[in-house]
Design a protein that fits this description.
heteropentamer; A: about 425 residues; alpha+beta; seven-stranded mixed β-sheet; 20 helices; about 45% helix; about 15% strand; globular; B: about 300 residues; mainly alpha; MetI-like fold; two-stranded antiparallel sheet; disordered N terminus; binds adenosine-5'-triphosphate; binds magnesium ion; transmembrane (chain C); cell membrane (chain C)
C-alpha cells in the first residue's frame, strides 16, 4: 500500500453498519451518517490517499491531549471553536490559513461566527465546519391552544416581562409549562442561556483575557429571569436531557431550549401523524429580550495538530481533505447546524431545507466568546454550576455570581 | 540465634526474596516511580505538555484555600461513610447466606454479582432512569402508590445517597465474593462444635465466623475504603458533581483541573492529598484490625 | 449438614433483595431490544411491544466490535494471568518466607494500595511515551499488574493455611517453590478465583487508561471502542443501542464469573481435617 | 439423662455405604463403648447421633424425642471430637465457657464448672492459653473438659484419651467413670483401647463394616464372642485361631489340630454343626509347661517382656505360630523348646460361618 | 542410617522454657522411645530434630553433620505428625508419593514403594480417596505410610498409633518393628503406650518438664526406675507408693507401713540414706492370699476385670488404697476381705529426693 495515510480523528460517533460503505452523501442522514459518507466519498475520489478514521468519544479532548503529550498527533481533528485557543496557545496546532488560500478558501467566505471561531492573532487555525446555537423550538399546536398564534406564526416574547406574561398565559390555557428545559445532570444550557442574555444586554462577559465580569446587573437580570420562570413553575423541572427531549416530543411543553442539532429530529416528528408535534413544529433563533440581537454560539472545526514529522505528501493530503469538506459544507448543514460558508446560507438549496429560512439571521447574530478567553470548556462548567445553584435557589443570585466570577478568575489566573 | 552461621542464613534469605521480586519490579515501575513523579509535579506549575517551573508548596496552599476543593474532600468522606460500612455488612450477609453448594445459592450469587459486570456508563445510565422524577422507575412506582416523586439527583441532600445506592448496587459483588472465599477457609469442625455448643446463629457468627474471617473483614474494609475514595464515574455521569457541588468528589476535581483546566501541578497536588487521606484511612483500619488480632 | 439450613427470614429477605437487584438488569436487557426512536419519545415504552433485534444487528454490523472484543480479551486475560502469578508468588513470599526487609517491604506494598490511579496515571503515561510503548498490549496490561490488592489478598489467604501442611512438605524435601506450587497453591483456589474475577473485571471495564494509552483504533479495547461509536447524545438518541452494547460488554465477564464461581465455593477447605 | 434408640439408621457417602441399617437401644444412664476396627463407622455413628451428619435412612431417638430432624444444639448432647475441634481463636477458658454462655448459664456458675473440670483434667494452668498453644494431649483434655462442663443428657466421646499418657489416661478414665456414676449421664464412648472398653463399659458394641457384630457386657464379649471377628478383635494379644477338625465328640468336644495334636475343650458337643472348625485360644490360657505330658510342643521365637507378664511367640512343629503367656519374670528364652498347656475351659470353637461356640459359663 | 546427638538444646516459647538444655545421644540404628507426661515437650523435641522449630540454644547433629542450621528437607528425616498434617487436596496416593517425587525417585519405584507401604498399613483400598474422606485411624495410617515410603535415615514418629484399634495397632507396631530391623533406620518414637514403648524400644527416654528423667532399656526403666517419677509414670496400672519407715536394716531392708505392718524387701540396706522412705510395689507383685499369714489385710472395693487378668482395688485398714492383681478368672468380689502377699524381690524404695533403690538384679 503506497497510499498516503491521513489520520483523521473525530467525534460524532460511528455508524459503520449503516453508512460504512455509503459514498452517496445526499442519501445520508444525521451527523454521523453525513460525516461518514463525506469521508467515504473523499476516499473514493482520492484513491492515492488512505484515510484512517479515528473515532473518539465526545468530545475527545482527553484522548487528544494524551496523544499530543505522547507525540502521537493525528493529522486532522474535530475541535470546538471554544477550545482552539487552548491548543493554539501551547503551540500544538499549525495554522492552515495560508494553505487554505492556496486552494482558494479565504476567510471572507466564512460566516462571521465561523470566521471568529478560527481566527486568533490574525491567523486562521482551522477549517470551520459549522456554527451552532441554542434555538427556540416551538410546539405550535400547544401555542395555538394557548392563544399564542398570530397569522399562523407563534408569538414570541420581546422582553423578559412579555416572556413571563406569555408563559403564564400558556400555562393557564394548556395546563402545561411554557418551557421545556434539560436541567438535571446538565449545565451547558444554563451557561448558554446566561451568556446569550447577558450578551443581549451589551455587557461584556470578560473585561480581558484574565478577568471575568459577572457581578453586573445584566448578569443578575439574566439569572433572575430564569429563576422567576422556575419559581413560577413555567418550565419543566428535574428533567435530564433525554427526558426533556421525550417530554417535548410528547407535547409536554411549549418551547424547548435546545441546539441546532435537534431541528432535523423534530421536523421528522412533525411529519408523523402519531406525534404530538404533528404539523405543529416551528423553530426560531432565541428571541431578542434586551437591547441587542445576539445569540451565544460555538462551532465545529477541523484543526491540524502540529507534527514536525508530517511529510509533504501528508500535508498535501490534509489540504485536499479540507478543500473537499469545504465543498461539502452544504451537505454537512443538513445536520441542522449553521453552515460555515456565507454562500451556503445564501443558497436556495439550503433555504429550502425545513425551517432554515427562519434561522438564516443566525449567521449574523451568532457570537462566540472572545477568542482570547482560554479554558472555555471548564469555564462553561463553572458558570453552569453556579447559575444552576442560583436558579434552583441553593444560593442567592449575587452569591452565585460572586462565586462564579471568583472561580472563573481563578482558572484564568492560573493559565 | 548464635548457632546459625550468618553467611548461610543470608544466602537462603535472599533467595526467598525472589518470590516477591517480580511483583516488586512492576510495583516500583508502575507505582513508586509514577508516584514520586506525581509528587514532584505537585510542586510545579505544569500542564500535560511541559513544566513552567517549580512553585514549592503553592499548589497545596491554594488547595486548602479553595472552597470547592474543601467541599470535595467532605463529599468524598461522606460518600465513603455512606457506602463502605454497608458494602461490608451486606457483602458479608450475602456471603453467609449464599455460602453453600445448593443450586439456588449459585443462582442468587450470580444475580448479586451480575450488576458488577456492567461498566460505570451503563450503571449510571440505568440508575438515572430509575431516579428520574419525571418518568423514572421510582417515580412511576411512587405515583402508583399515590406519592409525589422526589427529585433525588436534583436535591442537594439526596443526591449523594442516591449515588451511594447506585454504587452499592453496582459494587456489592466484590465484597460478597471476597467473603465467600474467606468462608471456605473456616474449618467445618468449628461449626460442628459450635452447633453442639448450642450456639445461636448470631453467636456462631460473632464468635466463630467473624473471628475466623476477621482478616478478610479488614481486607474488605480497606479495599472498599480505597475504592470508594476514588469515586469518579458515578457523579460525573449522574450529576456532574451537582447540584451545587454536593456530589463533587476529589477525583472529579482532579480530573477537571488536570484534564480540563490543564493545571497538572494543581491536580497532582490534589491527588497527593487524596493519597494521604486514603493512606490514613487505610492505615487506621489496618492498625485497628491488627491490634485486635494481637490481643 | 442439617444445621446449615437457611433461616426463612434470611431467605425471604435475600430473595426480595435479589429481585430488586435484578430489576435494573432486566431493564437493561429489555431496553436493548427496543428501537431507539421509540425510546427517544418515551423510555417507558420499554414496557410494551414491539421489541426488535435491530440494535444487535447494528452492533455486529460494525465489524470492528470483534476486534475490540479480541483486544479486550487479550488485555484482560493477560492481566488476569499476570496478576495471579505475581500476586501468588509475592503473597507466598510475604506470608511464609523470611528474607531481609520483608516486613518493611510488605508495609510499603500495603501503602501502595492507597495510591489512587489519579496520582500516577499521568506519570505512567509519560513513562510509557518515553519508551514508545503506547498502542501495544504491553502498555495496556502493565499498569494493572502493579495493583497491590492481589498481593494483599493472597498474603492474607496464605497466612490462614495451617502451617503444619508446609511443615510436612518441608520434611518431604519439597523446595520452597514446590511447596508453593504443589501444596499451598491448590489450597488458595477460592482466593485465586476471586482475584481472577476481580482482575478480569477491572481490566475489562477499565476505561481511563486504555483511552489515553490505546489511541489507535486498532488497539481500542471494547469500552473505549464502544464509547467512540457513541454520538454526543447517544443516551437520548441511541438508548437501545447503548444497552445492547452494555449487554455485549457485560456477557464475557458474566461467563468468566460463572466459570470461576464454582471454584470459590466448591474448593477444598483450606483447613485440614474434617 | 436419656436413652438412645437407633432404628435402622443408614449413612452413605456417595456410593459407599458406611452405616447399613443399624439398630441399637441404649438405656438411660448406660455407659456404652463402641469398639471396632479403624474405618468401620464409629465416628460416623456418633456424628449422626449428634446431628453432625445427615441420616440417609432410619430414625434416631434420644429420650422420648425423635431427633434426626433436630439441630445438633437442640439434642442436648455433648461431644468430644476425635480431632478435638477446639476454637482456635479462643483461650482454653473461653472454649469451655462458650457452650454455657450460649445456654445462659450464670457467670459464677460457669466459673465454678470450668474450674471444676479444669481441675479434674489437670489443665488449670493452661486456662488462659490460646488453644493453638497446647500440646496434643493438652488439647485433647481441653476437648473433654469442654464437653464435661456442659453436663448434657448424653455424652459422646470419640477416642477421647488417645493422646494421653498411661498415667493421665488412667486418671482421666477414672474421672469419666466417676462423672458417669455421679451424674448418671448416658455415655457413648468410642475407643480402640481394650482396657478402656473393659473398665468403663456397661455394654460394649462391637462394630464391623457399618454393622453390629455383638452387643454385650465386657465379660460377655471377652468370654463368649459371638463371632470369630469379635474374638479376634477383642483381646490383646490377639486370640490364637487354629483350624481343627472335630475328633470324637463325647459330651465335650475334642478337636485335632493340623499337626495331629489332640486338644480337649469344654464346649458342649451337642449343638455343634459338623465340618471344619476353628479353635480359639487366648494367649493367657496357653502357658508354658514341662515338655513331656503337654499336649503341644513348640519352639520359642520371640520373648516379649511387658513387665508384669511375658508374651511368648512360639511356633508349633508344623510352623503354626502361637502366642502364649508367661509371668513377668519368665525364664524362657528365644530358641527354647517348650511344652504348652491349654486350659480347656477357656477354649472356643468357631464354625464355618464364624459363629462361636463356647464352654458353658461358670456360675 | 545415622545417629542423633542433642547437645544442650533448649527451646522457649516466649517466657516459657519448654526444653531446658537437654543432651542425649542416640546411636545409629537405635530405636528410641520418648515417654513422658502430656505437655512435657516430646513433640517439641521431635520437631526441633526435624527442623520445624528453631533451636534457642545448643546444637543438634544427625550422623556426622551438624543440622540445626539446615532446612528440614535437607536433614534426611521423615516424620509422622501427631495431628497427621496430610495434604488435604491430594489423594492418599499423592500424599505418599509427594516426597518421593521431590527426591526424583523413578515413577515405577514410587509405585512399588507406595503399594508396599499401603499394603503393610492396610490402606490399599483407600489409595485414591482424598485424605479428607478418611476416618481418624485411616488418616493416621496414611501419615505413617507417607513417612515409611521415604526410607529416610531417621524416622520421627509422634504418637503414630494413638488412633488405631488394638489389633491394627499391634499389626502396625509389628510392621514398624520389622521395618526397623529390615532397614536398620534410626527411629525416635513418641508414645504414651507402655506396651508400645516396652516392645519397640531399644532404649526409652523418660522426659519430664523439658528434661530427661531416665534413659535406659525398657526393662531397666521398669525394674530399676531412677526416680519415683519414672516408677509412677511407667507401669499400668500405676505402682503403689506407700510411705514407710525403715525398720530394722539387716542385709536387706525391712520397712514398716503407716499402719504398722512389716514388709521385707530385697533392697540392700547398706547404701540407703536414713529417714522416711517411700515403698514402691507394682500391682502384679501384690497378689491376694489367704488372710492368715499374709503381711497385709485389705477390703476389696472394686474388681476390674481385664480379661486375662483382674485388678483388685483394695484399701488397707487405715484407708490406704492399693491396687493388687489376680488372674483373669479371679473369684474375688467387691466387699471381700482378703490378705495380700508381697514379692520382696520386686519391692522398690525411694528416698526423700525421689531417687530409687532397687533389689540387686538377678542374673
Ligand atoms: N505456641 C506455643 N506457645 C506456648 N506454649 C506452647 C506452644 N506450643 C506448645 N507449648 C507448650 O509447650 C509444652 C510442650 O509441648 P509439646 O507439644 O512438646 O508436648 P508433648 O510432650 O508433645 O505433649 P503431648 O503428649 O500432650 O502431645 C506444652 O506444655 C505446651 O503447652
Ligand atoms: N467424606 C467421606 N467420603 C467417603 N468416605 C468417607 C468419608 N468420610 C468417611 N468415610 C469413610 O467412612 C468410613 C467410616 O468412617 P468413620 O470416621 O466413621 O470411621 P471410624 O470407625 O471412626 O474409624 P477410626 O477408628 O479410624 O476413626 C471409613 O471407611 C471412611 O473411609
Ligand atoms: Mg473415628
Ligand atoms: Mg505432642
Amino acid at each position: 500500500d503506497d497510499r498516503t495515510t491521513l489520520v483523521v480523528q473525530r467525534f460524532f460517533g460511528a455508524c459503520e453498519a449503516e453508512y460504512g460503505r455509503n459514498t452517496d452523501v445526499a442519501a445520508a442522514e444525521g451527523e454521523c451518517g453525513i460525516m461518514t459518507s463525506i469521508i467515504n466519498r473523499f476516499e473514493a475520489d482520492n484513491p492515492d490517499i488512505r484515510v484512517v478514521e479515528n473515532i473518539v468519544f465526545w468530545p475527545g479532548y482527553d484522548q487528544l491531549t494524551a496523544q499530543l503529550a505522547a507525540n502521537d498527533a493525528p493529522d486532522l481533528v474535530t475541535m470546538h471553536g471554544s477550545v482552539i485557543a487552548d491548543y493554539q496557545a501551547r503551540g500544538l496546532l499549525d495554522p492552515v490559513g495560508g494553505d487554505l488560500a492556496t486552494v482558494g478558501i479565504t476567510p471572507d467566505q466564512f460566516t462571521d461566527a465561523a470566521r471568529r471561531a478560527v481566527t486568533i492573532d490574525g491567523k486562521i487555525w482551522g477549517l470551520p465546519l459549522d456554527s451552532w446555537t441554542m434555538l427556540w423550538h416551538v410546539n405550535t399546536n400547544l401555542f395555538r391552544k394557548a392563544g399564542l398564534m398570530r397569522n399562523g406564526q407563534p408569538v414570541l416574547p420581546r422582553s423578559p416581562e412579555e416572556l413571563l406574561a406569555q408563559a403564564e398565559q400558556f400555562e393557564r390555557r394548556t395546563g402545561k409549562p411554557y418551557l421545556v428545559q434539560a436541567t438535571a445532570n446538565e449545565y451547558a444550557s444554563y451557561t448558554r442561556n446566561f451568556y446569550t442574555f447577558v450578551m443581549q444586554q451589551g455587557v461584556p462577559l470578560f473585561t480581558d483575557a484574565r478577568h471575568a465580569n459577572f457581578r453586573t446587573p445584566a448578569a443578575h437580570r439574566a439569572l433572575e429571569l430564569f429563576k422567576q420562570i422556575r419559581a413560577r413553575d413555567l418550565t419543566t423541572q428535574n428533567q435530564d436531557y433525554s427526558a426533556a427531549v421525550a417530554s417535548f416530543l410528547n407535547g409536554g411543553g411549549g418551547v424547548f431550549l435546545v441546539g441546532t442539532w435537534m431541528v432535523q429530529d423534530f421536523d421528522t416528528a412533525s411529519r408523523n401523524p402519531d406525534s404530538a408535534l404533528h404539523n405543529g413544529y416551528a423553530v426560531f433563533p432565541y428571541p431578542q429580550l434586551f437591547q441587542r440581537n445576539v445569540t451565544f454560539a460555538d462551532g465545529h472545526n477541523w484543526v491540524m495538530p502540529h507534527n514536525p514529522e508530517r511529510t509533504l505528501a501528508e500535508h498535501e493530503a490534509v489540504l485536499r481533505f479540507l478543500k473537499f469538506f469545504a465543498a461539502h459544507d452544504a451537505d454537512w448543514a443538513r445536520t441542522g447546524h449553521m453552515p460555515a460558508f456565507a454562500a451556503v446560507i445564501d443558497s436556495p438549496k439550503w433555504r429550502a431545507l425545513p425551517h432554515r429560512a427562519a434561522l438564516a439571521e443566525i449567521a449574523h447574530t451568532a457570537t462566540p466568546l472572545p477568542k482570547q478567553i482560554r479554558r472555555q470548556f471548564p469555564i462553561e462548567t463553572v458558570v453552569g454550576q453556579e447559575a444552576a445553584a442560583a436558579i434552583a435557589g441553593n444560593k442567592s443570585i449575587d452569591q452565585a455570581l460572586a462565586d462564579m466570577e471568583r472561580r472563573v478568575n481563578d482558572i484564568l489566573q492560573h493559565i | 540465634m548464635a548457632s546459625l552461621t550468618p553467611r548461610r542464613r543470608r544466602a537462603t534469605d535472599w533467595t526467598n526474596a525472589l518470590f516477591v521480586l517480580p511483583y516488586l519490579i512492576v510495583f516500583v515501575a508502575m507505582i513508586v516511580v509514577p508516584l514520586a513523579w506525581g509528587m514532584w509535579l505537585s510542586t510545579t506549575k505544569s500542564d500535560l505538555f511541559g513544566t513552567e517551573g517549580f512553585v514549592g508548596l503553592t499548589n497545596f496552599v491554594r488547595l486548602f484555600g479553595d472552597p470547592i476543593f474543601l467541599q470535595t474532600v467532605w463529599n468524598t468522606f461522606y460518600f465513603v461513610l455512606l457506602t463502605v460500612p454497608l458494602l461490608a455488612v451486606l457483602g458479608l450477609a450475602l456471603a453467609l447466606v449464599l455460602n453453600r453448594q445448593a443450586r439456588w445459592a449459585a443462582v442468587l450469587r450470580t444475580i448479586f454479582f451480575a450488576s458488577t459486570v456492567l461498566s460505570v456508563t451503563v450503571v449510571t445510565l440505568v440508575w438515572r432512569l430509575v431516579f428520574l422524577p419525571d418518568s423514572g422507575l421510582l417515580s412511576v412506582v411512587t405515583r402508583a402508590l399515590g406519592g409525589t416523586p422526589i427529585a433525588f439527583l436534583n436535591d442537594e441532600t439526596l443526591a449523594m445517597p442516591a449515588i451511594a445506592i447506585t454504587t452499592i448496587w453496582w459494587c456489592i459483588g466484590l465484597p460478597m465474593v471476597l467473603f465467600l472465599a474467606a468462608l471456605q477457609q473456616v474449618p467445618r469442625a468449628l461449626y460442628e462444635a459450635a452447633a453442639l455448643d448450642n450456639a445461636s446463629r448470631w453467636r456462631t457468627l460473632t464468635r466463630i465466623t467473624l473471628p475466623a474471617i476477621r482478616r478478610t473483614f479488614a481486607l474488605v474494609i480497606i479495599i472498599e475504603v480505597i475504592l470508594q475514595f476514588q469515586l469518579f464515574g458515578q457523579p460525573q455521569l449522574m450529576t456532574l458533581g451537582g447540584p451545587n457541588n454536593a456530589t463533587r468528589p476529589i477525583v472529579l476535581f482532579i480530573y477537571e483541573t488536570g484534564w480540563r483546566q490543564w493545571e497538572l501541578g494543581y491536580a497532582s497536588a490534589a491527588a497527593q492529598v487524596l493519597f494521604a487521606m486514603i493512606l490514613i484511612a487505610a492505615m487506621v483500619q489496618y492498625w485497628l484490625s491488627s491490634r485486635r488480632e494481637a490481643r | 449438614m442439617r444445621f446449615g439450613r437457611t433461616h426463612p427470614v434470611a431467605l425471604t429477605l435475600i430473595v426480595i433483595a435479589a429481585v430488586l437487584m435484578m430489576v435494573p438488569l432486566f431493564w437493561v436487557l429489555a431496553l436493548s431490544f427496543k428501537a431507539n426512536a421509540a425510546l427517544m419519545a418515551d423510555t417507558n415504552s420499554v414496557f410494551s411491544l414491539p421489541y426488535t433485534l435491530a440494535n444487535y444487528r447494528t452492533l455486529f454490523g460494525d465489524g470492528q466490535v470483534f476486534r475490540w472484543i479480541m483486544n479486550s480479551l487479550i488485555v484482560s486475560l493477560g492481566m488476569t494471568a499476570g496478576v495471579l502469578i505475581l500476586s501468588s508468588l509475592a503473597g507466598y513470599g510475604f506470608a511464609r518466607l523470611d528474607f531481609p526487609g520483608r516486613s518493611v517491604l510488605f508495609v510499603i506494598v500495603l501503602l501502595g494500595l492507597a495510591v489512587p490511579e489519579q496520582a500516577v496515571i499521568i506519570a505512567r503515561h509519560q513513562m510509557l511515551s518515553l519508551v514508545s510503548m503506547h498502542n501495544t498490549y504491553g502498555a495496556l496490561i502493565l499498569p494493572g499488574l502493579s495493583a497491590p490488592f492481589g498481593v494483599f489478598l493472597m498474603t492474607q489467604y496464605f497466612r490462614a493455611i495451617p502451617r503444619d501442611i508446609d511443615e510436612a512438605a518441608l520434611l518431604d524435601g519439597a523446595s520452597r517453590f514446590k511447596i508453593f506450587w504443589k501444596v499451598l497453591l491448590p489450597l488458595t483456589i477460592p482466593a485465586q478465583a476471586t482475584l481472577g474475577i476481580f482482575t478480569f473485571l477491572s481490566a475489562w471495564n477499565d476505561y481511563w487508561w486504555p483511552l489515553i494509552s490505546a489511541t489507535n483504533k486498532q488497539m481500542f479495547t471494547l469500552t473505549v471502542g464502544i464509547a467512540s461509536t457513541q454520538m454526543n447524545f447517544a443516551q437520548t438518541e441511541g438508548l437501545g443501542f447503548l444497552m445492547a452494547q452494555a449487554v455485549l460488554a457485560g456477557l464475557p465477564i458474566l461467563i468468566v464469573y460463572l466459570f470461576f464461581q464454582k471454584y470459590i465455593v466448591q474448593a477444598v477447605a483450606g483447613a485440614a481435617g474434617r | 439423662m436419656s436413652g438412645v434408640v437407633l432404628d435402622g439408621v443408614s449413612k452413605r457417602y456417595g456410593a459407599v455405604t458406611v452405616i447399613d441399617r443399624l439398630s441399637l437401644t441404649i438405656a438411660a444412664g448406660e455407659f456404652v463403648v463402641f469398639l471396632g476396627p479403624s474405618g468401620c463407622g464409629k465416628s460416623t455413628l456418633l456424628r449422626m447421633i449428634a446431628g453432625l451428619e445427615t441420616v440417609d435412612g432410619g430414625e434416631i431417638r434420644i429420650g422420648a424425642r425423635r431427633v434426626d430432624h433436630l439441630a445438633p444444639g437442640a439434642r442436648g448432647v455433648a461431644m468430644v471430637f476425635q480431632q478435638y475441634a477446639l476454637y482456635p481463636h479462643m483461650s482454653v477458658r473461653e472454649n469451655m465457657a462458650f457452650g454455657l454462655r450460649n445456654a445462659h448459664v450464670p457467670a459464677d456458675e460457669i466459673d465454678r464448672r470450668v474450674a471444676a473440670a479444669a481441675d479434674a483434667l489437670e489443665i488449670m494452668p493452661l486456662l488462659d492459653r490460646k488453644s493453638t498453644q497446647l500440646s496434643g494431649g493438652q488439647q485433647q483434655r481441653v476437648a473433654i473438659a469442654r464437653a464435661i462442663v456442659k453436663q448434657p443428657d448424653l455424652f459422646l466421646l470419640d477416642e477421647p484419651l488417645s493422646n494421653l499418657d498411661a498415667a493421665l489416661r488412667m486418671r482421666t478414665r477414672l474421672e469419666i467413670a466417676q462423672l458417669h456414676q455421679r451424674l448418671g449421664t448416658t455415655m457413648i464412648f468410642v475407643t480402640h483401647d481394650q482396657v478402656e472398653a473393659m473398665t468403663l463399659a456397661d455394654r460394649i458394641v462391637v462394630l464391623n463394616q457399618g454393622g453390629i457384630e455383638q452387643v454385650g457386657s465386657p465379660m460377655d464379649i471377652y468370654l463368649t464372642p459371638r463371632t470369630e471377628f469379635v474374638a479376634s478383635f477383642v483381646g490383646s494379644p490377639k486370640i490364637n485361631l487354629l483350624p481343627v477338625t472335630v475328633e470324637a465328640a463325647g459330651e465335650m468336644t475334642r478337636v485335632r489340630l493340623a499337626n495331629g495334636a489332640i486338644i480337649d475343650t469344654a464346649v458342649a458337643a451337642a449343638d455343634l454343626p459338623a465340618g471344619a472348625m476353628t479353635l480359639g485360644l487366648r494367649p493367657e490360657c496357653i502357658r508354658p509347661a514341662a515338655l513331656d505330658g503337654a499336649p503341644l510342643a513348640a519352639r520359642v521365637q520371640v520373648v516379649e517382656r511387658l513387665g508384669e507378664r511375658t508374651l511368648l511367640h512360639v511356633v508349633l512343629d508344623d510352623g503354626t505360630p502361637i502366642v502364649a503367656e508367661d509371668s513377668g519374670l519368665s525364664a524362657v528364652r528365644p530358641g527354647d523348646r517348650i511344652g504348652l498347656a491349654v486350659q480347656p475351659e477357656r477354649a472356643h470353637l468357631f464354625d464355618a460361618d464364624g459363629l462361636g461356640h463356647h464352654p458353658a459359663q461358670r456360675g
